[in-house]
Amino acid sequence: MNLSGNKAVLSGATKELLLRWDETKNYWQDAKSREFEERYLQELMARVDQATALIDKLEEVLQKVHKDCE
């Protein structure tokens, strides 16, 4: 299982999404765009942060299990 690779993919996709969102905000600047950012993107970023932290912890556990099984 390649958790580091999966974490990198998730982080890269999130970074790309935020870059595209910054571009979009140049053209979409109303109450609905702010609502979208607050309601969906901020929640998504919080969940991605949680997921990447959990991936790190899971990778530590898996490394320990692997080491213990040697």
Features:
87% helix, elongated, 70 residues, mainly alpha
Order of helices and strands: HH
Radius of gyration: 17 Å
Question: What is the terminal separation in angstroms?
Answer: 17 Å
Overall mean pLDDT stands at 94
Q: Sheet bearing the most strands, described?
A: none
How many beta-strand segments?
0
Percentage of β-strand residues:
under 5%
- The helix content, as a percent range, equals over 70%
Spans of at least 5 consecutive residues whose pLDDT stays below 50 are: none
- How many distinct helices? 2
Structural class: mainly alpha
Shape: elongated
Walk me through the topology.
Elements (H helix, E strand, L loop, with lengths): L2 H23 L5 H38 L2
Helix pairs in contact: 1-2
